[in-house]
Amino acid sequence: MSIDQIASEVMHLDPKSRAVLAKTIWESLEDPYVIEEMSDQEAIQLAKRRDDEIERGEVVPLSHDELMAKVRGNEG
């Protein structure tokens, strides 16, 4: 079954069941997909660094659709 098919089936679940499923899946992931836990201050510093990189043109941000295509392997 493809990710799109699974996602379609999941959307038939009630919101609470979807939340439980999402939490279960998220907690099952390991590096490199999950960033180790960080404090709020560390997260803010990281966000500011990333924003500065974008402002300086060092990196190009992705739209949500572009990110999802990369995650699914459909970089087209």
Describe the structure.
It is built from four helices and no strands. It is mostly helical and 76 residues long.
List the helices and strands and how they pair.
Elements: H1 3-10, H2 15-28, H3 40-55, H4 64-72
Q: Can I get a quick summary?
A:
This protein is mainly alpha-helical and 76 residues long. The protein has four helices and no strands.
Structural class category: mainly alpha
Q: Percent of residues in helical segments?
A: 55-70%
Q: Treating each run of at least 4 consecutive H or I residues as one helix, how many helices?
A: 4
SSE arrangement, N to C: HHHH
List keywords for this structure.
4 helices; mainly alpha; 2 domains; 76 residues; extended
